[in-house]
């Protein structure tokens, strides 16, 4: 008897998202296949994870080789592959972000960044931005905007002050009391429909944080690892934060997170201040090392810029598209109609995309390795769906 994977998963797991009736079993490049053999063009990548496409051969081979040597040992011991992955990561980071802390996910990375900020400043309050998303564990949940997320846990969440994204005057007011440990932001707000602020805003908040002794945290869980055309988003606007959280694309499909830490904060951390069992495990480190090597060797950050140009030009010609936003392979597409039914129709047409917190906006997160032919295929199917 063959069990229905959809019914089985619903029966034995807690619900998370409202899932379409699709069980994916295989992936290759920009394509995935479901349990019934149907093929899809994937421009969502499992929440912005598949940076190099599905099952990238270089990463798969690195995992296979590492699995045959040692699957795991905690970071209670030294590990050559962990050291090499960390070196590769800090080499790609801007000057001054010279240390890395390994963990397992984006929310863990944000938790660690917020803890470090509180520790180094001796302060407790956090300032975050309306419409921002930083995770669902308690510390990062407190910095995630919205009563929908907070309602069941409000009494135990750390204090957060909310300010409008893109308004430096509000940041100035919020940090005036000099009791704020950290200012945390997604430099490009993803759930808010892929929105950016003016370049001057990022430079202004850097100056305000410097003046008030506030730690500036960039949550680059989605924007980082070259997805927007530079390794970190801050490079677009000439700003280096004090702490950067990374995850999603970092392992090209293997769960892993990291915090990049500036030298001044790193100098305050002692053995025992932070800890994690699975963070920095050998299998994940092999995946990170291979991912970063391919990112550099194949010049994929430049490819991300080219893909945005090709997609943007094509989308602008489609009736029903009102705006295209974003950078590289993190793209928001606003429509003249609700986005959710369009996403459903695209799935029926064999294309997977994401929606967002904006009812009219789709999110596209294609791999940096997407061939031009797949871009053109996507644009054709997208136009057909909107025309229908």
UniProtKB/TrEMBL annotation:
InterPro entries associated with the record: Aminotrans_3, Aminotrans_3_PPA_site, Class-III_PLP-dep_AT, PyrdxlP-dep_Trfase, PyrdxlP-dep_Trfase_major, PyrdxlP-dep_Trfase_small
Entry keywords, A to Z: Aminotransferase, Pyridoxal phosphate, Transferase
Record-linked Gene3D superfamilies: Aspartate Aminotransferase, domain 1, Type I PLP-dependent aspartate aminotransferase-like (Major domain)
Cross-referenced CDD domains: OAT_like
Transferase listed as a keyword: yes
Cofactor(s), names only, from the UniProt record: pyridoxal 5'-phosphate
Molecular-function annotations in GO: identical protein binding; pyridoxal phosphate binding; transaminase activity
Record-linked SUPFAM superfamilies: PLP-dependent transferases
Family stated for the protein in its record: Belongs to the class-III pyridoxal-phosphate-dependent aminotransferase family.
Protein name: Acetylornithine aminotransferase
Organism expressing this protein natively: Rubrivirga marina
């Amino acid at each position: 008897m063959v069990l229905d994977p959809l019914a089985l998963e619903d029966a034995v797991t807690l619900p998370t998202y409202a899932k379409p009736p699709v069980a994916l079993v295989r992936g290759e490049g920009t394509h995935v296949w479901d349990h019934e053999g149907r093929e899809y063009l994937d421009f969502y990548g499992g929440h912005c994870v598949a940076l190099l496409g599905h099952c990238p051969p270089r990463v798969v081979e690195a995992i296979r080789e590492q699995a045959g040597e040692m699957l795991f040992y905690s970071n209670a011991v030294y590990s050559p592959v962990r050291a090499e992955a960390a070196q590769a990561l800090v080499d790609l980071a801007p000057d001054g972000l010279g240390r890395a802390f390994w963990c397992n996910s984006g929310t863990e990375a944000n938790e660690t960044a917020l803890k470090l900020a509180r520790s180094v400043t001796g302060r407790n309050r956090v300032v975050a931005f309306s419409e921002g998303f930083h995770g669902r564990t308690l510390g990062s949940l407190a910095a995630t905007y919205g009563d929908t997320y907070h309602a069941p846990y409000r009494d135990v969440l750390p204090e957060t002050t909310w300010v409008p994204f893109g308004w430096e005057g509000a940041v100035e007011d919020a940090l005036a009391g000099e009791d704020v440990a950290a200012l945390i932001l997604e430099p490009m707000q993803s759930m808010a429909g892929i929105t950016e602020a003016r370049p001057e805003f990022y430079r202004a908040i850097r100056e305000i944080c410097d003046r008030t002794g506030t730690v500036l945290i960039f949550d680059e869980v989605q924007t980082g690892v070259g997805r927007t055309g530079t390794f970190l988003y801050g490079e677009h606007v000439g700003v280096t934060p004090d702490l950067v959280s990374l995850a999603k694309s970092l392992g090209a499909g293997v769960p892993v997170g990291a915090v990049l830490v500036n030298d001044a904060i790193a100098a305050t951390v002692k053995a025992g201040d932070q800890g994690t069992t699975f963070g920095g495990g050998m299998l994940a480190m092999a995946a990170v090392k291979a991912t970063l090597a391919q990112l550099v060797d194949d010049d994929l950050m430049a490819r991300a810029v080219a893909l945005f140009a090709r997609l943007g030009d094509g989308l602008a010609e489609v009736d029903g598209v009102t705006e295209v936003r974003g950078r590289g392979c993190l793209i928001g597409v606003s429509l003249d109609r609700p986005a959710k039914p369009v996403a459903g129709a695209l799935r029926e047409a064999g294309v997977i995309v994401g929606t967002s917190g904006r009812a009219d906006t789709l999110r596209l997160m294609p791999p940096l390795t997407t061939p031009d032919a797949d871009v053109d295929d996507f644009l054709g199917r997208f136009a057909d769906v909107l025309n229908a």
